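Page header: ASSEMBLY MODEL / two components / 232 residues total.
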Amino acid sequence: AQSVSQHNHHVILSEAASLELGCNYSYGGTVNLFWYVQYPGQHLQLLLKYFSGDPLVKGIKGFEAEFIKSKFSFNLRKPSVQWSDTAEYFCAVIPSRRGYQKVTFGIGTKLQVIP
Amino acid sequence: SQTIHQWPATLVQPVGSPLSLECTVEGTSNPNLYWYRQAAGRGLQLLFYSVGIGQISSEVPQNLSASRPQDRQFILSSKKLLLSDSGFYLCAWSVPSSGLAGYNEQFFGPGTRLTVL
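Prediction written out in full:
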């Protein structure tokens, strides 16, 4: 079974600072990877996803993530955060196989951006 | 467009009372449906998933059960709530993959905050 590890549980940044949230997964085969975000009072929603091809994927609101297969990592980055990026961020992994597969989520990282 | 509804938004129940949380999806047919529990510091834990009417799979042993009486309706239930059932419950749906799994993202509802006293 797969697992996901998010290293930073609570991150506090000032506006305009750069962001990198770590995500590592454990699985012996091909995977698809996701970052979801939950803004205060809003639904959990997809930020970006990786299935194949270019390991650098771009999502909404200036976020990007890089899949490094050799490191089993899918870190989320943003060069300059804004106060509106305050939210909880979840990394998720699913095996790329036929049939139903379970999505496994990390425990989440709470990001607080200080104006 | 597709939408997903959950109700109630918040619920306070005494220990030992029954529970029924409802989730409905609009604008799609034969979705995969999921119930998650979100607890602080523990992320999202998958409780149940369903790939069709009457088809329920449980991911973890627990005090809860799920049912899918209609294609786009998913219900989370308990006969007797425990204190440990408190949490934030999320319903989600996805389009079934005809090929490799995981191609389709999950769409989440607004959640239900359950407090068991």
